[in-house]
Design goal:
single chain; alpha+beta; 6-stranded mixed β-sheet; 5-stranded mixed β-sheet; 7 helices; about 15% helix
């Protein structure tokens, strides 16, 4: 492929004549849904358990009944998800090389362990560590799990989805125990859930969040009842629940403090108020709250067994008016005394997804300069890419092939180690703009660095424009663009988030990279 010269612009414009690398990524399957404006569809994931809390499998569509504001609805689609085979361990690849193509291999439902220490003391964290260690050792056919930590204002990934027990155990023991953050009464569970929703934005299917915490920090204030009445923002929470629903995220709050002693009523006992808040979040997202139990590993094992078995139903509400009012959703089955778990309703505010229809595969997008461009119709599939992260002095860098794009070196910075990040992206992941017989690709790359508490310590982003002779959409996946980006990292940095986005189609991809301490052994600026 030929990259030709072009005039420089305010953003970085690079035009090169170079060979392209061949990544191993495959293109993910396209979403079965496209969008139109005149009808809406409600998608509901329903878990069904019997009197012994065991999942009920094999129910036919005919026994399910859906009611929207007490009005019976017609089921548009029905699918059972049951007995998902465990994910085979993905190859780790070369040292220092990472990829987000695991998104292609995930089952219909995945589980996330969210450890929230904002309101957990060291002894409680040690007990949770012990319980989850036993759970990871004892669980048979471990499904894909990811582990997140909320240690302060940030909620960040410690271990991405894997079935490797060793990696999960290492991540758990890296996460806890640690000292709870100072000023924790000012930390918000709202921010935690919002960050989880953003982090899981590109993960397909249903996401179950096993949220181990010590209850809401809102009730740490002496006047917690008055604070509750004034601090809750109903509009913001409604928007958050819509966001979680759109991403098919079910939240299962679990009180990691175990059995709590005490009684009273919500106005006199903050623990009861915390448990009521946990139940509210669970009900709003189709999950379930667990508290007053010391069997944390049993709860985790039970949730992994039951909540990967579920039914997905869709319906289009009859005579729906976007009146911004709450619509109560009720699902029932006509056989058996079962317990059903699902989201309790939605607001008719226009945020629902659309009815599946066969529509045009492209749409016209108006660019900032007035240019009209045909881009894929609501292509929300993530950009899959590889990234190599090595200290700039690592001799392995000398063996890298010549990059399509090399960004300028950064000035030396005290107390940091210079690293090099190589992005490898299939060229056909981008949508090009055509002018004078040439095609231009405009994309951005970003590196975010965080320390062990999830605090953002470094942010670096650039925009790049490439001019090419061919439409990248017609190129095979073996043709890729490589970009080398220098970044200065602190010795305290433990996690990187790498991102790449197409400025034309708005597609993007993200990748989380754990930084190994051994990577800092090279000479840095001290």
């Amino acid at each position: 492929m030929l990259f030709r010269n072009a005039a420089p612009a305010s953003a970085l414009v690079l035009v090169l004549l170079v060979p392209l690398a061949s990544p191993s990524q495959q293109k993910p399957e396209q979403t079965p849904y496209t969008f139109q404006t005149n009808t809406r569809v409600v998608l509901t994931d329903v878990t069904v358990t019997d009197a012994k809390d065991n999942p009920v499998k094999g129910l036919p569509e005919s026994v399910f009944h859906i009611f929207d504001n007490h009005q019976p609805q017609t089921i548009l689609s029905f699918e059972e998800h049951s007995d998902t085979p465990p994910l085979s361990a993905l190859p780790s690849g070369r040292p220092g090389v990472y990829t987000n193509d695991y998104l292609l291999h995930l089952p219909p439902a995945v589980n996330v362990l969210l450890i929230d220490i904002a309101n957990l003391e060291i002894p409680e964290q040690m007990y949770l560590n012990d319980q989850l260690t036993k759970f990871l050792h004892e669980e048979k056919d471990l499904p894909p799990l990811a582990l997140y930590l909320r240690a302060g204002s940030g909620c960040f990934l410690v271990q991405n989805f894997t079935t490797d027990r060793k990696l999960l155990l290492e991540a758990l023991h890296k996460a806890i125990p640690r000292f709870p953050p100072p000023g924790r009464e000012y930390l918000s569970e709202f921010d935690t859930l919002h960050q989880i929703a953003l982090s899981l934005l590109q993960v397909p299917g249903r996401k179950n969040i096993l949220w181990f915490s010590g209850g809401s920090t809102l009730y740490l204030f002496p006047d917690f009842l008055a604070n509750t009445l004034t601090a809750q923002d109903a509009e913001a929470w409604r928007a958050l629940y819509d966001e979680l629903d759109e991403e098919r995220i079910a939240v299962f709050p679990i009180d990691a403090r175990g059995l709590m002693v005490g009684g009273g009523f919500p106005g006199s006992n903050p623990v009861i108020s915390q448990h009521l808040a946990m139940e509210q979040t669970a009900k709003a997202t189709g999950g379930e709250a667990y508290f007053n139990s010391n069997g944390l590993k049993e709860i985790a094992a039970h949730l992994l067994e039951t909540d990967s078995n579920y039914y997905t139903l869709t319906y289009s509400p009859h005579e729906l008016h976007f009146d911004n009012r709450w619509h109560n959703v009720r699902v029932s089955v006509s056989t058996g005394a079962y317990h059903l778990g699902y989201r309790s309703g939605y607001f008719a505010d226009g945020s629902l997804p659309a009815t599946p229809e066969t529509t045009s595969s492209t749409r016209t997008r108006l660019l900032a300069n007035g240019e009209k461009l045909e881009v894929p119709q609501f292509d929300n599939q993530p950009i899959l890419f590889q990234a190599a992260v090595l200290p700039a002095s690592d001799p392995a860098i000398a063996s890298w092939t010549k990059a399509s794009v090399t960004l300028p070196a950064l000035p030396e910075k005290k107390h940091t180690v210079p690293f090099m990040v190589r992005y490898t992206v299939p060229a056909n992941a981008f949508t090009a703009r055509r002018e004078n017989g040439k095609y231009s690709i405009v994309f951005g790359v970003v590196v975010l660095a965080m320390n062990g508490n999830g605090t953002l310590t470094e942010r670096s982003a650039q925009q790049i424009t490439l001019t090419i002779n061919h439409d990248p959409k017609g190129l095979p996946p073996s043709i890729s663009i490589t970009l080398d980006k220098p970044v200065n990292l602190s010795r305290e940095d433990q996690f990187l988030t790498l991102g790449i986005w197409d400025m034309t189609s708005s597609r993007f991809g993200t990748l989380q990279v754990p930084l190994e301490k051994s990577r800092y052994k090279s000479t840095g600026n001290n």
